[in-house]
Amino acid sequence: VVDVRKFYADTDHFTYDPGFTSTGSCESKISFIDGDKGILQHRGYSIEDLAENCDFMEVAYLLLKGELPNIDEKAKFETDITMHTMVHEQLHKFYDGFRRDAHPMAIMVGVVGALSAFYHDSLDINDPHQRMVASYRLIAKMPTIAAWAYKYSVGQPFMYPRNDMRYAEDFLHMMFAVPCEDYKVNPVLAKAMDRILILHADHEQNASTSTVRLAGSSGANPFACIAAGIASLWGPAHGGANEAVLNMLTEIGTPDRVGEFVAKAKDKNDPFRLMGFGHRVYKNFDPRAKIMAKTCHEVLGELGIKDEPLLEIAMQLEKIALEDDYFIEKKLYPNVDFYSGIILKAMGIPTSMFTVLFALARTTGWIAQWNEMIEDPSQRIGRPRQLYTGEVDRDFVPLHQR
Ligand code: ACO
Q1: Where's the active site on this chain (predicted)?
Q2: How far is the CA of 264 from the centre of ligand 1 (A)?
Q3: Nearest residue (CA) to ligand 1, atom 49
Q4: Which residues contact 367 (CB under 8 A, 6 or more apart)?
Q5: What is the pLDDT along the chain (402 residues), one digit of tens a residue?
Q6: 337 among known catalytic residues
Q7: C-beta neighbour count of 163 within 10 angstroms
Q8: What atom in ligand 1 is closest to the CA of residue 279?
Q9: Are the CB atoms for 23 and 17 separated by under 8 Å?
Q10: Of 62, 183, 247, 259, which sees the most CB atoms within 10 A?
C-alpha cells in the first residue's frame, strides 16, 4: 500500500517550494540583485552606471563575455553582430503564413524557434565557436525579426537592417522607415531606446530566463531555447506587464479615478492588481524603474509632449500607492515596466509591441545565461520533483464495466 506522506518523508533532500521562492537553481556570475536594498548589478557593475555610461552593445558584450569591452573589442563585437543582422530571405514567406492581426509575440515565438530550421551550422551546442555564432545571430536578428512582425501587422514592406546604424537606431529605422522616403531616427529617441534595452537586458533567474535554462538543460538548440523564453515572457505577470500597464492607465482614464483603482487592487475579492507594481525579488524600489521614470521625462520633453494624461495618471498612482498602508505593508513598489509603456507609446510604438521589445533586449541575458549553463561542469538536466496529492492504490476497472 502506498503511503504518500511517508514516501516524501523518507525521500532524501525533498523540498517543496512552489514558485521557487527560496530555491537556487544554478550558480551564476552574470547578475546580482539585492531586492531589499533595490540593487541590481551586472557582472559587478551597477545598473545605474551601465545605463548612464554605456550603450547596449557594451552591456551585451559584458553579459556575454564577462568584462566591459575596450574600444577595439567593442568595434569588433559590433562588426560581428552587424554581420548577422539579415534574416534568411525565406523567412519572408514564414511571416506571410500569419494572420495580419496576429499578436507580434505569437509571431516572435514562431519565427525565433524557426531559426533552428535555417541555421544548421549553429546547432552543435558542444562547440564553443558555434555557440558564439548562434549567440551573435540571435542578438543581431532580433531587431529585424521584431520590426518585421510590426511591419507585417500594418501591411508595410519590410525594411532591411542598416549596418551603418547603431543597434537601437537601426531597430527604430526598420520600424518606422518606409521605402522611397527619407527617414531620420531622432537621436534622443534612439538613446532612450538604447537605455530601455539596457534596463531589460538581464535579471537573474526570472521565469523566462529559468525557462531558457530549463529548456537548454536537455541539450535543446539555442534558437528553440530562446523561443521558449519568449513564450514565458509573454504572460502579464512577467514581460506582458508593460502592455498591461498601458492598458490599465488608459482604462483609468483620468487622475481622479486613481483612488478607485487602488481600492480595487486592495480588495481581496477582486482579482485586479495594479500592473507595474510588485516584484518577486524587489521589496524596495526597482532601480530600473527610477531610471525609466527619468528617461520618460526626457522623451516627453524632446517630443514636446506636455500634460500627457497617462503620465499624470501614472505619477498620481505611484504617489497614492506609495503612501497606502496596503502597498507599504506588502512592499509593493513600481517595477521596471511601470514607466516604459509611456515612453514607448510616446515614441509611436504600438502597445502590442511592448513585450516584443522586452524580448529583444532580454535575448542578450537569455543567451549569456544559456552559454553559462552549457559551460558549467555541474550542469545537469533540470528536473523538479513534485508533491503528489492524487489518488493511490485504486482498483482497476475495465472499460466496459465503468
Ligand atoms: N497589486 C495589488 N496587490 C498585489 C500586487 C499588485 N500589483 N502584487 C502583489 N500583490 C499582493 C498579492 O495579492 C499578495 O497579497 P496576499 O499576501 O494578501 O495574498 C501579495 O501582494 C504577494 O503577492 P504574490 O502574487 O504572492 O507575489 P509574487 O512574488 O508571487 O508576484 C508579481 C510578483 C507577479 C510581480 C506580482 O507583484 C504582480 O502580479 N504584479 C503585477 C504584474 C507586474 O507588474 N508584473 C511585472 C513584474 S516585473 C517583470 O517581469 C519585468
Answers
A1: 279, 337
A2: 14
A3: 238
A4: 64, 134, 135, 138, 139, 222, 226
A5: 888 888 888 888 888 999 999 999 999 999 999 999 999 999 999 999 999 999 999 999 999 999 999 999 999 999 999 999 999 999 888 999 999 999 999 999 999 999 999 999 889 999 999 999 999 999 999 999 999 999 999 999 999 999 999 999 999 999 999 998 999 999 999 999 999 999 999 999 999 999 999 999 999 999 999 999 999 999 988 888 888 899 999 999 999 999 999 999 999 999 999 999 999 899 888 999 999 989 988 898 889 988 888 888 988 998 888 899 999 999 999 888 888 888 998 899 999 999 999 999 999 999 999 999 999 999 899 999 999 999 999 999 999 999
A6: yes
A7: 14
A8: 35
A9: yes
A10: 62
What is the CB < 6 Å shell around ligand 1?
19, 237-239, 241, 265, 273-280, 330, 332, 335-337
User: Which pTM value belongs to this model?
Assistant: 0.92
Instruction: Give the DSSP per-residue string, 158-199.
Output: PPPP-TTS-HHHHHHHHHH--TTS-----HHHHHHHHHHHHH
